[in-house]
Amino acid sequence: MQIACPTCAAVYEVPASRLRPGRHVRCARCNAVWKPAPVAEPAPPQGAPTPPEPVAREPAAPLADAMQRLAAMPPPRSPRRVGLTAAWLASVLVLAGAGTGIVIWRQAVVRIWPPAGRILVFREALTQQPVQNPGNRAQ
């Protein structure tokens, strides 16, 4: 429904549900306040046939088959679960890489942090690969 400001003639498109009897409206252009005229519902034209009600039909066979296949499919993985899996995989790879680096560069690790020699000595007993601990050197 269109209403027009009586002061500045600004035209506004307002849904009829927003206009209630007895309420005032304010013009955005000139700030004038007025009570819009009551809106009468337009009467349907005489002799106009009412539209026929839709008849519910059964879905076509291809549509029914597609719906059955869709129901049989497993639900898609949520993005949250995919992200969680990726985070776990990245964590495991980082830890495996750190462990591999410590084993490969064990001499440098023991030189930088001598208490690591105690842990790596245990590895020496398992693999028969000597680890030189600078803290345990005979002088």
From TrEMBL:
Residues 37-65 are annotated as: Disordered. Residues 39-54 have a biased composition (Pro residues). This is Zinc finger/thioredoxin putative domain-containing protein. Residues 1-35 form the Zinc finger/thioredoxin putative domain. The chain crosses the membrane at residues 82-105. InterPro entries: Znf/thioredoxin_put. The keyword Transmembrane applies. Keywords: Membrane, Transmembrane, Transmembrane helix. The lineage of its organism: Bacteria, Pseudomonadati, Pseudomonadota, Alphaproteobacteria, Acetobacterales. The keyword ATP-binding does not apply. It comes from Rhodopila globiformis (Rhodopseudomonas globiformis).
